[in-house]
């Protein structure tokens, strides 16, 4: 127990509590878990993108050494369909999604059979003995061709490859806006598919307790609470008999925001054979079977006056669902629908999204989830409009963005931005970047006909994050809510346990939540421990995705801690023989106003509560408290990113010369963690611009199925970043915080591509398709010259 003064924690760059364990290898990854009698699963996957399964014979695998069992899809046919929790329209085409294929495979990597063996290698070796006969069917790969009359069908029983059409039309009719516009610009932008690359591959361990019918499932997942609910629905195991634990999770970026077939298969097999089982993917297996991100064609038209004032925006999307609708697949582009107008004022907005089935790996959430695509489109076409009307790209944005004095501001898309200051962030970024100096250098090099061109890219962004009000999610047909839960447990010795419904996978929740709780309770940072990721230890939660953890989960911790203080105040007042109104509380100490020597620390109150020797009448012997937050609004971080590139017009090689970003994420709990999140986001956004692409051949085979073919950048491939912040606190939560996990990814991709196009615009280049590889840049230059 202590009554020492406690320095404010929020705002301090505390080293992460988690890191000592992580960097010394004392982690508990799912693949580390070993229990008595553990067996290993291996999954046979379809080598074909589309085929009818004529025959599966697993019996030869049973003759292999170490093999205990083997199952085809038909053997496990009692499994239900994998869930889609976001059917965005009433008439959405929503095909069944068997965890393991029974009659037909619909993408290369679709599970076909499973082997159970005494070790991982025996299981993998036995897969080659399984006999499968396929009748090939035509692949469906091109989004526009898939919608054409007579196209082969991914799901023949549905009669169409169109999953849904989702419109959003607000303000003045776009056709009338087009008629009075002095300038219109149309562009087509293509977002390539991206493959998530979390440091830790996916893994599942299931331990059954046959006597009671209980199961514990360990999974490298972002969503233990949602996974528990959905697996109970899929497998028929009662939810109260199923415990889900997310141990240490090595990254996710949305790829582990999912209910995967492998989790359902492992649970079904453990139930069937009554033994614990483990499955861990290889990296190449993950490239086939972990859901992909992006995959979209954007047709964008912007209407404006000659002075640059925006009138309207029209967006038509074709978005690649892949073979099935997974947990939130249809909703990903719908999240982006609200963000195409971004920070700009306009009179008309016309948006239509069409979801299309293809015979490729399903798509779903990937860092930013719909928001990077939207920001890319609006920031790219703003640069094109600037060139058309002869304005500097920054000046065009300045003429159209929402002024800081206009907040709160309801956008043309219907969102209410609570706070922001785009002028301040942009001004700071321009100064750090030395924008005018670089423009002067660019003009000089262009005049000299330099073969290595200097380009300057601008990206001013905002995003909606903290996937939030449950009533809004209801209106969007999302099956879950947006609330979050936290409990504060005051232990008899004065130490603190924070139980959170969020489930971290690298974000530093243990550190940040400790800082929040320590500040409110006035206890030392070191005296706080955080419990998470276990549906039995932390029974309530909506988990971690969409930059929601701090703005919703952190707010729940803050409120729960305030409730603890309120309960403790009653007991302290009783012990000090004073009224509650006469007590001050600071740095963890209750003191009587005017009599500072009459005092009780919150730790002393916790012990007195434990003994229950002298409590106020009717007071339960606890000062523990829980709180659930269902926020009133999303949070809206924003910022300005500036990128300078040098592009060799003879080789197509692009080099990032400098990169400056100024982000506004509201009040900052831990600057060190924020800096890390920004750096990681920048790396992934730049990777889309320059390096990464999932490529399929004409038969639907993934030809970028290893890290030798799919270019994930290393630190050596990325520039040094200059990062700064402005701070306009959010008004939607008591901490004033905004999300940060996805901001860098959302802003950086258009900044880099804008810079490349800016370098080549004098040569007649108006776009380079991502990733902007040397070959694509070189071809763009040659085509423009010809």
**Outline, from the CA principal axes?**
globular
Q: How much strand?
A: 15-25%
Radius of gyration: 28 Å
Largest sheet: 7 strands, mixed
Number of strands: 28
- In helices, the fraction of residues equals 25-40%
Structural class: alpha+beta
Average residue-wise pLDDT: 96
Number of helices: 20
Strand order of the largest sheet: 3-5-1-12-9-10-11
Which residue ranges are poorly predicted, with pLDDT under 50 across at least 5 consecutive positions? none
Written account of the structure:
- It contains 20 helices and 28 strands.
- The strands form seven sheets. It has a seven-stranded mixed sheet with strand order 3-5-1-12-9-10-11. A five-stranded mixed sheet has the order 7-15-14-13-8, with helices on both faces.
- Helix 10 (371-389) packs across helix 11 (393-400) and helix 10 runs parallel beside helix 19.
- By secondary structure, it is an alpha+beta fold.
- It is globular.
Question: In a few lines, what is going on in this structure?
Answer:
With 786 residues, the chain is α+β, with helices and mostly antiparallel strands. It is 29% helix and 24% strand. The chain is globular, with a radius of gyration of 28 Å.
